[in-house]
Task: structure prediction
Amino acid sequence: MCPGSFDPPTNGHLDVVGRAAQLFDEVVVAVLVNKSKKSLFTVDERMDMLAEVVKPWPNVVIGSFHGLLVDYCRDHDIRAIVKGLRAVTDFDYELQMAQMNQRLSGVDTLFMSTSPEYSFVSSSLVKEVATYGGDIAHLLPDSVHRRLLGRLAERS
Ligand code: PNS
Result:
């Protein structure tokens, strides 16, 4: 399971998902439905974008969940969560969540170091830079880049 907000998916996400797809028989990429968090794309749009960009890996499926991640894992018989670690700043919170999830359910979290070229990439930073006209083309899959520029144009 590779969970996240994916608002929108970046090349950093894709790096982790693609490498997980080579390690596991099946990978579920699941979008968190969080009504209290303001997002640029709807959950359906995020799932569409993900479905498009994971096409190279036939063993990757897209899902969505609300509530606890470990409940989704239990209901779908998922035994491992894969998370990308960009830098030491990710580690504290990710470790805390991994330990909580382990205690709640027995599901283990495996950390994958992101490729160094993506260690500074986050969805929120990409959105901020794009909002002010910065070039983020190299940080997103082409299809996502087009949709992001389209959405920002609609909003402005
Ligand atoms: O892409 P994000 O926003 O960093 O992803 C965070 C996510 C969705 C993986 C995390 O917030 C999560 O697992 N949320 C589900 C709710 C939950 O299980 N909370 C308890 C965590 S110990």
